[in-house]
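Support request from a user on the community tier.

User writes: "When I paste my structure tokens into the form, the page sometimes reloads and wipes my input. The last time it worked, I copied everything first. Here is what I submitted, just in case something in the input itself triggers the reload:"
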């Protein structure tokens, strides 16, 4: 089963991957990733997702928690959290391949309401968990990849397979953590509504009162739970989103630092440069030059 899934993911990435090795598919939230060399450190605010690693190795860090995983293992992220990730094992003979699926809180909520009540285990302390991929999850992933090759059947069978995948995740070893995403009035879901607002309007000034109202919480309760879920304050969360998008604009689109800063909502380029250096370890100019040099070396 794992070999068959690897074959389908390999086929998908070879046919559809962009310059960064990412192949987005016709199933919303499902993508495959490939790489033929170890990668640089990537900064992101990850949304809840499942990553099945089929070949190669990867490391993902959240705060002081470091998750290392390889072929046959899965990474589960159960909250919107800032992560630093790096593909650590990949070469031309054995490229890195992974299957990535974003989790759907609405679907989780629907399933929780239908599944037989279970004794609630305490969710894990970290929103990042690595374990051996469960057979039912791998089997469902394979059938999703096979469905992509049947476009006429895709709209008919897609929702059922996504529902099945979320069912197996809920029934699996980390079901308690996943159930929190579907609890409509739970803290994770409420903070998720505020996070969605920040993601949609990160370039604009946002008042904490707006975010607390979106979460249906008082200001003090909102601050407490936002930090507990994401490890950041709302301002830090928005700031990291701005800086990461500015980095993408400079690296991928060739934008100058001033234009990138203004595009993501900064009024002061000096402040942008200072905060960029704090997050990424060097100035925008040096970071962009290093990335360009790396791209040149990779193609030389």
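"...and here is what came back when it finally went through:"
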């Amino acid at each position: 089963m794992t070999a068959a899934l690897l074959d389908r993911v390999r086929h998908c990435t070879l046919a559809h991957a962009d310059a960064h090795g990412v192949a987005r598919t016709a199933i919303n939230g499902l993508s495959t990733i490939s790489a033929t060399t170890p990668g640089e450190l990537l900064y992101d605010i990850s949304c809840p997702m499942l990553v099945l690693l089929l070949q190669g190795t990867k490391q993902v860090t959240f705060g002081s928690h470091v998750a290392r995983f390889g072929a046959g293992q899965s990474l589960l992220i159960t909250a919107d959290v800032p992560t630093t990730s790096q593909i650590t094992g990949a070469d031309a003979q054995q490229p890195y391949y992974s299957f990535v699926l974003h989790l759907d809180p609405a679907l989780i909520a629907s399933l929780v309401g239908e599944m037989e009540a279970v004794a609630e285990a305490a969710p894990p302390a970290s929103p990042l968990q690595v374990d051996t991929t469960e057979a039912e999850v791998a089997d469902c992933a394979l059938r999703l990849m096979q469905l992509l090759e049947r476009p006429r059947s895709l709209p008919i069978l897609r929702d059922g397979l996504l529902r099945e995948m979320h069912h197996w995740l809920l029934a699996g070893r980390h079901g308690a953590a996943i159930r929190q995403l579907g609890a409509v009035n739970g803290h994770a879901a409420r903070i998720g509504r505020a996070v969605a607002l920040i993601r949609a309007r990160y370039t604009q000034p946002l008042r904490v009162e707006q975010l607390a109202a979106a979460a249906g919480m008082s200001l003090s309760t909102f601050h407490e739970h936002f930090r507990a879920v994401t490890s950041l304050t709302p301002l830090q969360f928005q700031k990291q989103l701005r800086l990461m998008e500015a980095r993408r604009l400079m690296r991928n689109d060739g934008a100058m630092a001033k234009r990138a800063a203004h595009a993501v909502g900064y009024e002061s380029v000096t402040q942008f440069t200072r905060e960029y250096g704090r997050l990424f370890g060097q100035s925008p100019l040096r970071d962009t030059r290093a990335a360009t040099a790396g791209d040149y070396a990779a193609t030389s």
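Agent notes: The reload is a front-end session timeout and is unrelated to the input. The chain has twelve helices and ten strands. Residues 296-300 have pLDDT under 50 and may be disordered. Escalated to web team.
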